[in-house]
Amino acid sequence: MRVSLKGPQPSDTASPDVYEEAQYAERDMHAVWQELRDSGGLHRQRTPDGQEFYAATRYADVREVLGDPATYSSAYSTMLTVRGDGDVAAGAAIHLTDPPLHSEIKRAFTPLMTVPAAQRLEQGITDRMSELFETVRGRESFDFCEAMVTLPMTITGELMGIPQQEWTTTGRATVRAMGGADPAGSEYQRRFELFEAHTTIMTVLGEVLEANPSGDTVSGRCPVTAQVVGDEVRDVALLNAYAFLMGANPTVPQTINQTLILLASDGDLWSWFTRQERTGQRFVDEALRWASPVNHVLRRTTADTVLAGTEVPAGSLVSAWIASADRDEAVFEEPYAFLPDRSPNQHLAFGVGVHRCIGQHVAALGMRIFFDLWRKNVRSVSLGGDPGHLISNFLNGVVCLPLTVTWK
Q1: Which residues are the signal sequence here (predicted)?
Q2: How many Å from the N-terminal Cα to the C-terminal Cα in the chain?
Q3: How far is CA 402 from CA 135, 152, 316, 382, in A?
Q4: How many domains does the chain have?
Q5: Which residue has the higher pLDDT, 170 or 317?
Q6: Is residue 1 part of a domain?
Q7: Section 25-39 average pLDDT
Q8: Tens digit of pLDDT for each residue in 82-110?
Q9: Sequence-ordered list of residues with C-beta below 8 angstroms from that of 17, at least 6 positions apart, any chain
Q10: Could you give the CA distance from residue 10 to residue 177 in angstroms, rounded to a whole number?
Q11: How far apart are CA 198 and CA 190, in angstroms?
Q12: Domain for residue 3, yes or no?
């Protein structure tokens, strides 16, 4: 999705529809979300196939939905594009379960995701990311997305237990599995490419699990989830390995991509950035708020409820628009400005409550390491062309990022 440096423009608000996916590759949706926030907190909309859903766009309402798993269940689907009978992993994967089952699954992975655990990964991530930087050093112009396709795997690859020879394949597939890249392509072609990407990921992870990975890796702990869930039909270990990979890989690179677009376009911000000795957590938090890499998450109500003054029947689909909440004027001063030292910054990019991202500490560490290396190695950066954006209402993705770089 394009993110305007000047904030939403009135001409962008041609339609209040938040579902239609192609628009996310072409326009800045913040104008639409602002219009919806201004006209009320909850909006009834329909998907192209006629499925009704509610869109929560204000910060307070999004936070209420995310913070109340008893009323707004995750055990159906987290994406608007996956409806029908629900996600194939519903009720089995960590992000598609509610307490107490969710807490039992989470317990198996928590020791790998604590602050001390993340700190133990720092040197390895730094070394792998430095090696990746060396592959582009000296190139004045390149597509960052293509050149850095393994960037997320330098952070999560070893933690997941995925062999390095699979990092390129896996890195490409995790982005493609979220949406299309070619606006001119047919719907059939796009759906086929999504299927192919999901199949690729499942194949790689299946081979990893068959190799009995170490218990110090996410994949090595996934078999425990099968015992916890007790589902004899589905491959619960594989579904959870998939959930972790798809949760980890898109967030970090897409936050970095959107921030690099900003750094390459805003001379004042670049000047501020280059004067810092190290990347602080406030900068990372603002990058996460700015990018809000996950546009929305989906929930289904378990009982009749009232949200934003609107009666919502049991069994309703409610989409919580995180990207909209992270620009809510009622919460954030100058929401359309990137303030690198913003405080407080209660962004919702990692979610909130029981489903707050379990890998947040590892993700934040990876972003700090990247921006430190970028500052250390790059003298200047500018856009070498128009970025290309993912066709997806779920992930705020960049699929092509031409950069012109002067190296130190």
Answers
A1: none
A2: 31
A3: 16, 19, 42, 9
A4: 1
A5: 317
A6: no
A7: 92
A8: 988 899 999 999 999 999 999 999 999 99
A9: 23, 32, 45
A10: 32
A11: 12
A12: no
